[in-house]
Amino acid sequence: MARPQKCRCVCSRPARTCFVPEGAEGEEPVILGIDEYETVRLLDYEMFSQEQCARRMGVSRPTVTRMYDAARRKIAAALANGRPLEISGGDVKVCAAMKPECRDMPHCCHRQRKEEKERDQKMKVAVTYEDGMIFQHFGHSEYFKLYDVENGKVENARVLPVCGSGHGALAGFLKDLGADVLICGGIGGGAKQALAEAGIRLYCGAAGDADRAVEALMAGNLAYNADIVCAHHHGEEHSCGDHGSSCESHNCGGGHCGH
Q1: Mind giving me the DSSP string for 87-127?
Q2: For residues 51 and 245, which has the higher predicted lDDT (pLDDT)?
Q3: Cβ distance 165 to 110 under 8 Å?
Q4: Could you give the angle at the alpha carbon of 241 between the alpha carbons of 162 and 159, nearest 5°?
Q5: Are 140 and 234 in contact (CB under 8 A)?
Q6: At what angle do helices 189-197 and 167-177 cross, to 10 degrees?
Q7: pLDDT at residue 224, as a whole number
Q8: Spatial distance between the Cα atoms of 96 and 90, rounded to a whole number of angstroms
């Protein structure tokens, strides 16, 4: 017997539930579940990690992955075929933030948003660092630049040599430094998991000047690729963050570096 589907917690129902291309009135719509819509909102609009999204919705990370993949296929089908897109259905529970029992909900979106905002008033941002630039392979990082940020401004910054090697040791090193956020280039799946377990928010697939990247993060316009996964050993000519021409020999594409 199939296991019953776990109810998914959503922040609120979408303000608009039907999008109709010009000239497509009356055509059969593509149906996007409210839970599927919520994964797109959290991952692509709010820029959450899949772990954060899973906690927010009260489901497992594999469930988030399945819903997100399904949502993207449906949105692509609606766009490619010029069909209406309707958001409805799905086994969802709207967040009860206005009710007294909300404070007992560990995944309450409104409470978490408040806590995240409070943390962001003062935080430490780490960047994989080499000669002023974002170093492009987390696992081979020899230096991190650590920025003390308060109220959206950098108050202090210092370059620190790495203590230890391997993604587990590096994640522990950053946790010991008190880092809340990491900006990096290429990174493997194991390293992503280690950082998530350490409670460090990740902005991977970034490239360029390290100082400017932190400024962009504070301004809310940092360019990065949350889907990037590097599964091979990098040579000196390989860069997963900016996906230059040297990536072609590794068959990189679609935000994933690997086999």
Answers
A1: E--SSEEE--TTSGGGGG-TT-HHHHHHHHHHHHTEEEEEE
A2: 51
A3: no
A4: 25
A5: yes
A6: 30
A7: 85
A8: 18
Q: Which residues of 203-227 are buried (b: 16+ CB within 10 A; e: fewer)?
A: bbbbbeebeebbbbbbeeebebbbe
Higher-confidence position of 219 and 36? 36
pLDDT tens digits for range 67-126: 999 999 999 999 999 999 999 988 788 775 544 444 444 445 555 555 555 455 688 999
- In 80-111, which positions are buried (b, 16+ CB within 10 angstroms) versus exposed (e)? eeebbbbbeebebeebebeeeeeeebeebbeb
* Dist CA 13 CA 37 (whole Å): 9
Residue 242 main-chain phi, psi, to 5 deg: -100, -5
Q: Where does residue 26 rank: exposed (0-12), middle (13-18), buried (19+ CB within 10 A)?
A: exposed
Tokens of 14: 């979408």
**pLDDT score, position 34:** 92
**Block residue for tokens 């290429």:** 186
Given this model, what pLDDT does residue 253 score? Answer: 36
Is 241 within 8 Å of 227 (Cβ atoms)?
A: no
Q: pLDDT for 94-108, tens place per residue?
A: 775 544 444 444 445
SS3 173: helix
Q: Helices marked H in the chain — which ranges?
A: 34-40, 50-57, 61-81, 109-120, 167-177, 189-197, 210-219
Indicate the pTM of the whole model: 0.48
- The dihedral formed by the CA atoms of 75, 81, 82 and 87, expressed in degrees to the nearest 10: -30
